Amino acid sequence: MTGDGTTASLLVIGGTSDIGRAAALAYAQTGRRIMLAARDAETARRNADDIAARTGVPVSLHALDLLDTDRFEAFVDDLPMLPDTVLCVVGELGEQRRAESDIGHAQRIMRVNFEGPALILGIFAERFVARGTGTLIGVGSVAGDRGRASNYVYGAAKAGFSAFLSGLRNRLSASGVRVITVKPGFVRTRMTEGMKLPPVLTAEPEEVGHAILEAERGGSDVVYVRRVWRGVMTVIRMIPEPLFKRLKL
Prior knowledge:
The protein has 249 residues and is of the alpha/beta class. The protein is built from nine helices and nine strands.
């Protein structure tokens, strides 16, 4: 419940994604009202109906294209209410080899993973500051912890998003607005379908959804869904650059 006795609400940006659906379900099971924002309304409708049927909470749908940045202000204005929590789970891995020579593909990866999420959360940040409360949660990636040859375009975009969230968190630390960064690591989703993933480093969407909920309930600012990733990425960041170049990770 919110301070005025009304039901607290969650807006999921990326409501068609596996992680977005899992997080929305986890929140709905606590009684939260859910708003799903997505470009693909039909897929979002299936998720909304499933969550509502399982939990009995209201789930509304809202059209949003994160590449259409000119519409962001209108999108926020048109929501039925200013949500208590905004979760952005949007991400697109893209193809590293293609992005090396196709500037349009590289641009899309950067815009979907950094520009769109950062700008929309920035708008909500200002609305939350004016209200005096709110939580912003951005799903980043361990790929942003250090650039690697295998996915540095995607990693650079996620690194930018993580830096944005870090700076926003620092700026708003005394405002009553929380900013949380969640780094899932490998997740078994449609985006990673067909990839060989190490079981110890790979989470299920439901695991990530509950980790996001627990991150908001707790006091952590940066959360690695599987704790092993914090150690793995600490080691990777510490590798000297001359050796790192030879590893071709």
